[in-house]
Amino acid sequence: MTIMQRIFRNSLILAVAVVVFYVIDWLYGTSLRDPKFLDGWILFAGILFLALYNVRKKLAMLPLGRAAIWLQFHLYVGYFVVAVFLVHTKFSLPGGMLEWAMWSMFIIVSLSGIAGAYLSRMIPARLEMHSERVIFERIPAYRAGLAEEVEALAIDSVNQAGSLTISNLYVNTLHEFFRRPRNFLLHLRNSRRALTRIQGEIDNLRQYLDAAGKENLSKIKDLVQAKDNLDYHYAHQGVLKAWLFFHIPATYGLIVLMVAHVAIVYAYSSGVP
Amino acid sequence: MNQVEHVGKPQRWDKPFGHQRMHADDINRILSLPIFKAIDKNDFPEDLSLEDIIANDGRIVKYRHGDIIVRKGDYGNSLFVILKGSVKGFIDSEGEKAVFQHKPSRKQSWFASFSQLWRNSKIPECVGEKAYRWTGDVGETSARLTSNPSISISIHTTDIEAAGDFETAGHSPLSPEQTALQETWVPRIENVDEISSKYQTFELNAPDMFGELSALARSPRNNTVFGVGEDTVLLELRWQGLRDIRQWSDSIHKAIDKLYRERGLETRLRESSLFDNVDDETMKIIVEHSLFETYGNFDWAHHYQREMAKDEDGGPVLEHEPLISEQDHYLDGLLLIHSGFARVSEKFDHGEKTIGYLTKDDVFGLGEIIDSLRNNGDRRLQCSLRAIGYVDVIRIPTLIVEEHLVPTLPQFSQSTASSSGGKDNNVQQSMLDFLVDNRFINGTKAMAINTDRCVSCDDCVRACAVAHDGNPRFVRHGFSHQNLMVANACMHCKDPVCLIGCPTGAIHRNIDTGSVVIDSVTCVGCATCANACPYNNIRMAEIRGADGAFLTDAEGGQIYKATKCDLCADQLGGPACQRACPHDALVRVDIKNIGNLTDWLELS
Q1: B510 contacts: CB under 8 Å, gap ≥ 6
Q2: Cα separation of B390 and B497, whole Å?
Q3: Among B218, B14, B199, B245, which Cα is nearest to B88's?
Q4: What's the DSSP call for residue B428?
C-alpha cells in the first residue's frame, strides 16, 4: 500500500467515525440527556489514548506493536479528538478562567501536533536534497572545526602573502558567520540570500589577490558553503525537535486541567448525566 | 567515578576451550593420532607451541548414544576428531527433519523486559569488574563459561572421567556446583536405531575427522551428526586453534584442505537444486570432473579497507577484484558459487558496468551453455565474473554440463537462462553500484534508513539503548545514496569477516538465528574484530565497574570490550530500532533483496 492509499483509507475511516460520533451525540441529546457528558468523556478518553503514544515510546523494550502504527492511530485519533472538542465546546469560545486555560492548552497541543505532522513530512525531504545528513548533536563540533580551518587560512594569508585582504574579510564578516549558527529563518524559508551575499563578497576579492591568495580564497568559499549547509541542517533539525517542546508539556498540562474540569463538573452537576 | 580499579587484563587463553587446560597425557595421546603425527613441532613458534594450541583450543568431549554433536544449519566453529567410538550423520534431509529439535527460547520474560526501565545502569558500559576478573575460582569460571550460549551448548559433557583412554588423569572430579552450572540443553535423538535404519546415514569412526568445512568457511553445518554407542569420545578443536595449526603446519594444511575440498564438492553439489534430478551415478561423474576454485583473499576485509582509504580517483572498484571469467572468452564451464560473492559485469563504453552479483547457490554460464546447445553457437561468455572479496566456486566443465546436467534440467525446454545473475531491471544502476561497490550486499540485516522520511528523532537510538543496558549499539549515520542511508549498525553479514582472528571465540554466530553476536564476558578487548569489520560497525568500549570507575589491568592499561548490534537477541519482539521508528523510516533488510529495498525506498 502506498502512502497516498494509506492516507485515503485512514481519512475515509476518520470521516465515517466523525459522522457516527456526531449522530450518536445528537441521538443522545434527543433522549433528553446532556450530550456534553457523552462527548466530554469521549474527549477525555481520546486525549488519554493520544498520551499513551508517549508511553509506548518509553516502553520500547516491550512488544507493543510498531511505533509507526501507533503514530498513525495517534494522528487520526488526534484529528477525531479535534472534531469531538469542537462539538463539546459547541464551536464557541470558553467562559471562565479554567475553561480558557483548558481551551488554550488544547489549541496549543492540537496546532503543535498538526504542525509537527506537517514538518515531519516536509523537512526530511528538504534535508535529503541539501547535502549529506548530519547528526544534530555533532553540528557544533563540525562548525568549530570549520571555524578553525577558516581562521588558519586567514592567518596563513597574512603570513605567507603579506596580504590583509583575506584577514580583513575574516575579521569583518567570516568570524561572525562561523562563530554560531546563522540565518535560521532564512534557511527555514529555503532562501539562499545570505549565502550568495557572502560568496559574492568573496568572489569580488579575487581580483586583488595573487595565485596563493586566490587558492586560499577558494578554500574559504568552500568552507563557507559547508558552514551554510550545517546551518541549514541545524535550523531544520532544530525545528523538528523544537515542536515537541510545545506539544508534550502542553499535553501534560491539559490532562491535569481535564481532571480538574471533570471533578468540578461532577461536583456541581445534578448527578444525572 | 574517578577512581580506577585494577583487575587482570584478559589474555587469549585465560579461559581454555575446555573447562580447564587439557592434561599433558591427553595431549600426547592426541598428538600420536595419524592426523597430528605428521606435524613437525619445530614448525611452530616458541610462544605458540602445538601443545599449547591443543591444550587451550581443544577439549575432549564425550557423547552418549544419540547425542547430536552438530546440527545441520548451525554455524559451527569447530573441527572434530573422533578419538574413540563412532558417529553417524544424515545424508538426506528427511532424516534431518525427523529429528529436528528446537532449542528453548532465550528471550526475556515480559517482566524482565519491563524491569529494564529501572534495572538499566546509569553508568555507560558498566559490566562490573567481577565478570572480567580471572581467578580460576570454580564458581566464577563456570559462570563465565555458561554466559556464552554457544559455549555452554558445547560444554555439556561433564563426564570427563568417563572418557576412557582419554581420561584426564590427575584432574580432580568436578564439584557438584560446577556440574550443576554446566548442565545445559543438549539435543538428543531418542530413537537412534530406528532413525538410523529408516534414513540414509554415513558413519565415521576413529580417527576420522569432520566439521572442517564449516570451521574453515564460516558456513553452516552441512549435516547433522550424532554419537553412536555410549562412549563416543571426540577432540573438539575450535577454529582459532585450527587456523593456527593450518598456518604453521604444511602437512595438516594439505590434509585438511584436501578433505575440505572433497567434502565441499560432494555435499555442496547435492545441496544445489540444480542437481535435483541428477542420479547418483551421474553425480559421481560430475563430482569427479568438477574443480573447487578459490578467488580473492580470505582476509579481504583489510584489503578492501585499504582500497577504500585511497584516493577516490583511484579507479573503479572492480579493477581491484580478481577476474574469474572474462566476457567474450571461451566458456570453459558452469560456475556454481559455493560461498562468498561475485560481481557480474559487462563491457560498457570504455569501462565495465555491473549488471548483478552472485552469491551462494547462484550459477554463472548456464545460459550460454544452453544457448550454444540450442543454436550451435560459439561458446563465448556474455559477461565477466569477478570475485568480490573472497569467493569459492565449483567449476563443472562445459562438456560435462552439456552431456550430464543439461538433459536433467526441467527448464531446459523453455529456459533462456542468462548469466546475469539476479539482475533486477527495476533497480537503478547507480543504486546497484552503490550496494555492490560498498560491499553492502554482504548484509543480511543491514540497517537501511530512508532519509526522505527520517526526522532524526533518535527514537531508534533510544530504543536500542534501552535494550542494551543504556548503551546504544549503532550510530545513526553511514554511507548514503539518494534517499538510502546504510547506518553504522552490524549487518550480520553472510560472510562475517569479523569472526576471523577472534582469539577466544567471543564473537560468534548465534546457533539458532545465524546472527553474529559477541559474548562480552569472553571478549578480551583485543579489537581484532573491530579492525576486521570492513564497515566499522564494531566499537571498542572502555568498560567501567559498578561504581563507574574505569577498569584497568595491573599495568594501568584500559580494559575494552567489543560492542555491536545483536539484533536485540534477548529482547521480546525483535530489533527495537525498527519497532521504535514512528515514521517507517528504518528497516533491517537483507540486501540480497535489492528489489524489495528499492520498493520500500520508493514508498514515500
Answers
A1: B75, B149, B150, B516, B517, B569
A2: 10
A3: B199
A4: -
Q: How many contacts (CB atoms, under 8 Å) link A and B?
A: 86
Domain count, chain B: 3
Residue of B nearest to A53 (CA): B582
Domain of residue B341: give its range. Answer: 278-427
Residue B483 sits in the same domain as residue B345: no
What is the arithmetic mean of pLDDT over B377-390? 84
* Rounded Cα gap, residues A250 and A256, in angstroms: 10
Tell me the per-residue pLDDT of B168-194, one tens digit each, with 9 for 90 and over: 333 333 334 333 333 344 567 777 888
Tell me: the pLDDT tens digits for B82-108?
Answer: 998 999 988 877 777 666 544 444 678
| Beta strand pairing call for B209-210 and B351-358 | unpaired
A240 interface with B at CB cutoff 8 Å: yes
- Interchain CB distance below 8 Å, B459 and A62: no
In this structure, are A99 and A200 located in the same domain?
no
Within this chain, do residues A48 and A153 fall inside the same structural domain, yes or no? Answer: no
What distance in Å separates the CA atoms of residue B241 and residue B254, rounded to the nearest whole number? 16
Q: Per-residue pLDDT tens for B93-150? A: 777 766 654 444 467 888 888 888 888 888 888 875 555 544 433 333 333 333 333 3
ipTM of this predicted structure: 0.86
Question: Hey, of B118, B447, B455, B461, which one would you mutate to test binding to chain A, going by the most A CBs within 10 A of its CB?
Answer: B455
Q: Are residues B323 and B452 in the same domain?
A: no
**In a shared domain, residues B390 and B443:** no
Under 8 Å between Cβ of B367 and B419: yes
Residue B62 sits in a domain of what CATH number?
2.60.120.10
Q: State if pTM tops 0.90.
A: no
Mean pLDDT of A149-161: 88
Can you list the alpha helix ranges (DSSP code H) found in B67-191? 93-99, 110-114, 116-119, 138-146, 149-154, 176-182
Residues of B with CB under 8 A from a CB of A: 110, 113-114, 116-117, 451-457, 459, 462-463, 466-467, 476-477, 480, 483, 485, 571-574, 576, 578-585, 603-604
pLDDT at residue B306 in the model: 65
In angstroms, the CA A6 to CA A13 distance is 11
Site of grid cell 548530519: A134
